């Protein structure tokens, strides 16, 4: 293997330790800690497991954490009422609504009801606009793209002047990470190309990339011959390709694969993220970072 592995599991630990130290310092100086509310509607096992991990991480870094577990038949009005309550709650700095919501609830309406200054997921149109403007305007970069940028920077990969190719144009990964990488800012200043399902020659674009960020949701889409030797490859894809029995728990677990043919790609790339253990662990980590940031904005210390 020639590529250096960029492990999200290791970077997560570094960032969480930094957050723990900052929370302790703020508590001592200002007598407060960040407050995060997680709102879960229904009982989807996947959503429960995501929320549980968010709650566990919030506790670990010393946040005040409130859990709102609501039944599947909660009305849209009642959910909007909950959001209004936490918008007005001074002890809450971050509001997280676990997606997807049940079909009878308008997701867009709910996300738009969150106070943009507590929107730690960064999905509110105001925060999307702030991200586009860049610089001091940016409050809460969305968590997965923020995690991707953090991994590139902490791996020591040069971004200034680099050719970045983003595969995928979703609102939660492709569009925001593309926007972040071309900004006039540290960890950015790149020349960005976004490719998608209508792109004519995907391979030719990928082959130009110094930094290739793949978020398509198609297992093994990126072939080794599409990778420029020495490039930094960030594989965002998380695809369930089967099931196996966990050696640890004896329970059935999913076999996961990324969007890149990892085994072959690692012989060509300079840096590469594994799946699992790459970008995955960064999303919740950046949610914690955004929640801490929200309190710091409120205290006027950033
Ligand atoms: P999406 O389905 O919303 O968007 C996928 C994008 O990829 C689309 O814009 C589409 O145009 C493009 N695409 C799909 N097939 C393509 C092809 N054959 N050629 C070129 N472009 C193609 O997906 P998403 O929400 O952006 O997620 C993408 C992947 O990243 C999924 O596997 C998802 O599970 C994963 N993901 C991981 C994390 C994390 O690790 N924390 C977070 C979000 C998404």
Number of helices: 10
List bound small molecules. Answer: nicotinamide-adenine-dinucleotide
* Structure summary, number of beta strands: 11
Order of helices and strands: EHEHEHEHHHEHEHEEEEHEH
Through-space gap between termini: 42 Å
Shape: globular
Largest sheet: 6 strands, parallel
Overall residue-averaged pLDDT value = 97
Helix content: 25-40%
**Assembly state here?**
single chain
Poorly predicted ranges: none
With strands numbered from the N-terminus, the spatial order across the biggest sheet is 1-11-8-7-5-6
Q: Output the radius of gyration.
A: 20 Å
* Portion in beta strands: 15-25%
Structural class: alpha/beta
Descriptive notes:
By secondary structure, this protein is α/β, with parallel strands linked by helices. It contains 10 helices and 11 strands. The chain has helices spanning 8-30, 45-60, 76-88, 107-113, 125-133, 143-154, 174-181, 202-207, 262-265, 280-299; strands at residues 4-5, 35-41, 64-70, 94-97, 163-167, 191-195, 211-214, 232-235, 239-245, 252-257, 271-272. The chain has a 6-stranded parallel beta sheet with strand order 1-11-8-7-5-6. A 3-stranded parallel beta sheet has the order 3-2-4, sandwiched between helices. A two-stranded antiparallel sheet has the order 9-10. The radius of gyration is 20 Å and the shape is globular. The termini are far apart. The mean pLDDT is 97.
Summarize the structure.
By secondary structure, the protein is an alpha/beta fold. Helices cover 39% and strands 18% of the residues.
């Amino acid at each position: 293997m020639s590529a250096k592995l960029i492990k999200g599991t290791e970077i997560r630990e570094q960032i969480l330790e930094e957050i723990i130290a900052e929370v302790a310092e703020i508590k001592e100086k200002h007598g407060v800690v960040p407050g995060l509310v997680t709102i879960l509607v229904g009982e989807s096992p996947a959503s429960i497991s995501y929320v549980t991990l968010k709650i566990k991480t919030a506790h670990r870094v010393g946040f005040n954490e409130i859990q709102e577990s609501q039944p599947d038949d909660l009305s849209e009005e009642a959910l909007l009422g909950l959001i209004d309550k936490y918008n007005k709650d001074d002890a809450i700095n971050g509001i997280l609504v676990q997606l997807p919501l049940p079909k009878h609830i308008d997701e867009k309406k709910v996300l738009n009801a969150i106070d943009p200054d507590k929107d730690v997921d960064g999905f509110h149109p105001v925060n999307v606009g702030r991200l586009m403007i860049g610089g001091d305007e940016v409050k809460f970069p969305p968590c997965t793209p923020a995690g991707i940028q953090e991994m590139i920077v902490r791996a020591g990969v040069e971004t200034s002047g680099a050719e970045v190719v983003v595969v995928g144009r979703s609102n939660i990964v492709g569009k925001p990470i593309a926007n972040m990488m071309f900004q006039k800012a540290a960890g950015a200043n790149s020349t960005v190309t976004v490719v998608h399902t209508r792109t004519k020659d995907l391979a030719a674009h990928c082959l130009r990339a110094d930094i290739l960020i793949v978020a398509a949701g198609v297992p093994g889409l990126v072939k080794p011959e599409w990778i420029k030797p020495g490039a930094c490859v960030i594989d965002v894809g998380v695809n369930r390709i089967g099931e196996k029995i966990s050696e640890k728990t004896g329970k059935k677990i999913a076999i996961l694969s990324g969007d890149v043919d990892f085994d072959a790609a690692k012989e060509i790339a300079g840096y590469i993220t594994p799946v699992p253990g790459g970008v995955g662990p960064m999303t919740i980590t950046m949610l914690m970072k955004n929640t801490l940031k929200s309190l710091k904005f409120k205290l006027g210390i950033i």
